[in-house]
Write a structure and sequence with these properties.
Helix content is 57%, strand content 24%. The chain has 118 residues and is α+β, with helices and mostly antiparallel strands. Strands 1-2-3-4 form a 4-stranded antiparallel β-sheet, covered by helices on one side. Strand 2 and strand 3 form a beta hairpin. The longest helix is centred in the N-terminal third of the chain and has 58 residues. The relative contact order is 0.09.
Length: 118
């Protein structure tokens, strides 16, 4: 009878030990899945913000202003030869970008004269 009690206790301890290992592995796996999802959401937000900044760069005509997008708000300001763009997404994330402004292409003297003569 004593042997039966000891074997039942051993089986119970073994089952408890195996379930604890399974729970730890499951917890590790779930934490990795949640971390990957957060990273993916962060990358998606950063991509949206950069796309909004690129569109703002193309549409910016004044020294400063703002554009409203479906995903958030873009504010821009011309500083010397740089365009400072700050993006505020609806989720509360903020991103800031600086773009070099391209100088307008200058035509050579010959082509300028020929285009004004026409």
């Amino acid at each position: 009878m004593l042997l039966k009690r000891q074997s039942k206790a051993g089986i119970l301890l073994y089952a408890l030990f195996m379930s604890a290992i399974f729970v730890l592995l499951l917890q590790f796996y779930l934490n990795r899945v949640v971390a990957m999802e957060r990273q993916q959401q962060s990358q998606l937000s950063a991509s949206r913000a950069y796309l909004m900044a690129e569109v703002t760069k193309e549409l910016a005509k004044d020294d400063s202003g703002e554009l409203v997008f479906k995903e958030g708000l873009a504010r821009y300001k011309q500083e010397k030869e740089q365009l400072q763009v700050s993006i505020h997404l609806e989720q509360g994330d903020e991103y800031s970008y600086r773009f070099q402004q391209r100088a307008p292409a200058k035509l050579p003297e010959e082509k300028r004269e020929s285009s004004t003569e026409k």
